Amino acid sequence: MELIKNKICEILFILSLLLLTSCAKQGNTSFALSNSPFYNVIIDQLSETYVPARTTLYFIKSKNKHFAEALEDSARKAGFGISQTEKGAISVKYIIDRINSNKEEIEVGYIFIETSTGLRFTRKYAHEAGSNLYTLDYISTEGQL
């Protein structure tokens, strides 16, 4: 009987450790709206994955010309080369979309990037109406160089 109690205690201890580690937050950060959180998040992830001084990027064109220009400018400032064609460059596609759009609630959406080398990165964001802060939560990163 004592052996069974010890085994149960061991199992409960291991389960509690697993629960504690699975609850750890990963990358929950608030950004001021004026700091352009979306392109900062994209460039930060690309900088963690690729060496900026040795990497040329080609951003697949977006309908939002202002955002596309700001994203390319941020990439240049981070040290990336920017190409106007896919030849010899890593292609980057991105989606930034709202999941809900009720202006009286917290706006929730996501950022997704995918590169021609197989990197896939997703983050969820939340923005409270009337605030200039965005909260960005890690969802997933897949792929390698």
Order of helices and strands: HEHEHEEEEE
Radius of gyration: 20 Å
Overall helicity: 25-40%
Helix count equals: 3
- Summarize the main sheet: 7 strands, mixed
**Percent of residues in beta strands:** 25-35%
User: How far do the termini sit from each other?
Assistant: 54 Å
- Calculate the mean pLDDT score and round it: 75
Q: How many separate domains?
A: 1
Q: Globular, elongated, flat, extended or rod-shaped: what is the shape?
A: flat
Low-confidence stretches: 17-35
Task: Specify the structural class.
Answer: alpha/beta
Strands of the biggest beta sheet: in what spatial order? Answer: 1-7-6-5-4-2-3
Question: How many β-strands, per DSSP?
Answer: 7
Characterization of the model:
This protein starts with a helix and ends with a strand. The chain is α/β, with parallel strands linked by helices and 145 residues long. It has one domain (26-142). The chain has helices at 2-22, 37-49, 65-77; strands at residues 29-32, 56-59, 81-82, 90-98, 106-115, 120-128, 133-142. It contains three helices and seven strands, in the order H-E-H-E-H-E-E-E-E-E. Mean pLDDT is 75; it is low at 17-35. A hairpin with a 7-residue loop joins strand 4 (90-98) and strand 5. A seven-stranded mixed sheet has the order 1-7-6-5-4-2-3, with helices on one face. Helix 2 (37-49) packs across helix 3 (65-77). It comes from Desulfotalea psychrophila (strain LSv54 / DSM 12343). Residues 1-24 form the signal peptide. This is Conjugal transfer protein TrbH.
